[in-house]
Amino acid sequence: MSLGQQLVPHLPFLRRYARALTGSQGHGDAYVRATLEAIVEAPDQFPRDVDPRMGLYRTFQAIWASTNIDIDGEVGNPVHAPETIASARLARVTPLSRQALLLTAMEGFSPEDAGYLIDASPEDVDSLVAEALAEIESQTRAEVLIIEDEPIIAMDLETIVRDLGHDVSGVAVTREEAVTQALAQRPGLVLADIQLADDSSGIDAVKDILAEFNVPVIFITAFPERLLTGERPEPTFLITKPFQRSTVKAAIAQALFFDQATVPAN
């Protein structure tokens, strides 16, 4: 099996990580493209002493550490990059701590593997994750709308949201309910399942909501590969079912981090 064939199954999940790390589909996918271009240009430099997924993420981390993306989603030289919203966001939390949190909580890497990816010891990774979690505790609280038709999952999400110190503005099970609740009490975050009770779509519900006002959105799906192709407008934040509580917490914190970073300081 060629190297390309070995890497293909892992690309959707690298896109998920890159989008969550940058807070943007365009920026995240640009980093993934740059990673693949680097592998094609220098295949002999691809790490062969680890499994393909580890090698892919390791190459991505090298690209992330050495380049920046401007506001249009292009890869460029960070030394000469102008001040942008993206660079302002990165200053809000130590970048390495966010990488450690996302690699472990969202991507499922062990502290040892995450340490390999970011050139840190497992103990350092644990410390970085603790640092990121401490930053999460200081985040502004938000009203969260949950769009989920499975009662047990909705209850679990509600518990996670409240444990983080946020409030739940409502739980909707259909597209119509979601839009009605969103317009009645504008939430600061939306958690949306893809398939809803009446065969309506959480994606369509979110489109309706975003047509009225801007709000960060996290989608929840059992089939993430369908929304991580990089071929069309797709979610920036995506959680895979069945999910771990730590994954949901990391996604919520990251989505709110980028949303709050766009609000000008008084």
From TrEMBL:
<feature type="domain" description="Response regulatory">
    <location>
        <begin position="143"/>
        <end position="256"/>
    </location>
</feature>
<dbReference type="InterPro" id="IPR053866">
    <property type="entry name" value="PhyR_sigma2"/>
</dbReference>
<protein>
    <submittedName>
        <fullName>Chemotaxis protein CheY</fullName>
    </submittedName>
</protein>
<dbReference type="InterPro" id="IPR053867">
    <property type="entry name" value="PhyR_sigma4"/>
</dbReference>
<keyword id="KW-0597">Phosphoprotein</keyword>
<dbReference type="InterPro" id="IPR050595">
    <property type="entry name" value="Bact_response_regulator"/>
</dbReference>
<dbReference type="Pfam" id="PF00072">
    <property type="entry name" value="Response_reg"/>
</dbReference>
<dbReference type="Pfam" id="PF22233">
    <property type="entry name" value="PhyR_sigma-like"/>
</dbReference>
<dbReference type="InterPro" id="IPR001789">
    <property type="entry name" value="Sig_transdc_resp-reg_receiver"/>
</dbReference>
<dbReference type="InterPro" id="IPR014605">
    <property type="entry name" value="Sig_resp-reg_PhyR"/>
</dbReference>
<dbReference type="GO" id="GO:0000160">
    <property type="term" value="P:phosphorelay signal transduction system"/>
</dbReference>
<dbReference type="InterPro" id="IPR011006">
    <property type="entry name" value="CheY-like_superfamily"/>
</dbReference>
<feature type="modified residue" description="4-aspartylphosphate">
    <location>
        <position position="193"/>
    </location>
</feature>
<dbReference type="Pfam" id="PF22029">
    <property type="entry name" value="PhyR_sigma2"/>
</dbReference>
